[in-house]
Amino acid sequence: MRPLLLLAILICFHCVLRKGFCSSEQDKVLSITAVTQEQVILLQNISSHNETTLWQPASPSYITENTPVHLFVQSSSVTRVTELLNTHRFSFSVLLENTQQLIQEQTRNITTDPKSGGMTYERYHSLEDIYYLINKTSQEHPDMTKLILIGSSFEKNPLYLLKLSGRRGPVDKAMWMDCGIHAREWISPAFCLWFIKYAVIFYKENPDITAMLDKMDIYILPVMNPDGYKYTWTTNRMWRKNRSVREGTSCVGVDLNRNFDANWCTAGASSNPCSDIYCGQYPESEPEVQAVTKFLRAHKDSIKLYFSMHSYSQMLLFPYSYTHDQIPNHSELFDLVKEAAVKIRRHYKNVYHFGSGAKTIYLAPGGSDDWAYDQGILYSFTFELQDRGRYGFLLPPNLISVACNEALAAVKIISMRVLEKLHE
C-alpha cells in the first residue's frame, strides 16, 4: 500500500505544480444558450468570472436570448459552472473536452528552427518565426517585395509591412490587408503568410493574382498586435487585446479594433479597462493603431481596397459596424461579399454569412474597416475566417490550408471585381 500511497502523493504534487490543484477535469469550451432574460443576466455574470473567457460573443454585453454562447472554462471552474448551468436549467453542451491537447497540437513545432528549412505554411508560427519568414521573403524576391517598418508596439516589437508588387513600373492603386489585430485569432496571421507565399509563387501563373499584382501594390501587415500575439504563445492562449498598461488600473490591454476613430467608444465598446472590448483612453491611443492610421492616411489616395482578417464565425462583412445606418454603396458591397460567399460554398462546401457588420453580428464602434471607409476607402471589408465554433480559436493545423483557400478565394473575387469597377 505504501508505494501506491506514495504514487498518489506524487501525482497530486505534479498537479499542484502545474495547476495549483489536483483535479481530473480539463479546460473545456461550452456552448450555452439562454432562453429567458433571467438566464441572459445569469450567463453574463458567469462569463464575467476570471476563470472563464468568452469566445463568442466578444463581451457579456452582447449575450442575448436564443443565441449560442461559446465559453472557455478553466478546469478549476468546470464543476462549479456546469452545476450553475444545470441548477438554472440552461441548455448547454461541451464543444471541446480538452483544450490543452489542441493548444499543444497548435504549438507542436514551436522549437523548429526556421533556418533549417523545416517551416511550412500549414502550421502556426511564433512571432519570431513570422518576422523571419517575411524577411526571408523580401530577400528572396527583391523584385516583387519591400519590407517597410511602419512603427512599433507598446512593448517595442516592430510592425513590419510587406509590400507586394508585380514586375512592372509604378501604379496608382493599392490594396491593404492586416492580420492578427486580436491576439488569439491565430488563423489570421497564418492567412497573411499564406497569401504572401501564394502571391510570390503564383505570380505569372494564376491570372487573378497576376492581375492584382500588375494593377495594384498590395500592403500586408501580418501581425498588427505583436505583443498580444506573443503573449498567447508564452502565457495565455486566450488573450485578445494588446499589452499596453496605464496608471490607475491593474488591467492590461486595449481592444485595437475598438480604438480607431470611428464613432469611438459608443454602444458596443467599453470604457472599462478590464473588458475585452476596452476602447482605450482616447481614439488612436495605442501605438499599433497610430502606426496603421498614419500609414493609411499617407496612402489613402492610392489605397482602394481594405481587408482586415479575423476569426472565427465564417463571415464576410463590410461597414458599418458602429451604426445600423447603411453606407451609400451598401448594395454594391453586399453584392461583392455575396458573390464571394457563393464561390466559397460552391468550391469548398462551406457556408459564410455576409452583410454589414452591425446587422450581421452586433454594434462594434472604433473598428478599422469603418475608419478606413470613412477615410474614403470605399471597398473596406472584415473577414471572419474558419470555423463556426467546432474548434473556434483552436483551429487545428490540418485545417489551415482549407481556411486559407476559402479566404483567398474571397479576396481574389472581390479584388478582381473592384479592379473592373475602377477601370470602368
UniProtKB/TrEMBL annotation:
InterPro entries: CARBOXYPEPT_ZN_1, CARBOXYPEPT_ZN_2, CPB2, M14A-like_propep, M14A_act_pep, Peptidase_M14. It comes from the Eukaryota. The active site is at E384. Keywords: Carboxypeptidase, Disulfide bond, Hydrolase, Metal-binding, Metalloprotease, Protease, Signal, Zinc. SMART domains: Zn_pept (SM00631). Gene3D superfamilies: Metallocarboxypeptidase-like, Zn peptidases. GO terms for cellular component: extracellular space. PROSITE patterns: CARBOXYPEPT_ZN_1 (PS00132), CARBOXYPEPT_ZN_2 (PS00133), PEPTIDASE_M14 (PS52035). The keyword Hydrolase applies. Its cofactor is Zn(2+). Residues 1-18 form the signal peptide. Residues 123-418 form the Peptidase M14 domain. PANTHER family: CARBOXYPEPTIDASE B2 (PTHR11705:SF17), PROTEASE FAMILY M14 CARBOXYPEPTIDASE A,B (PTHR11705). This is Peptidase M14 domain-containing protein. It comes from Hemibagrus wyckioides.
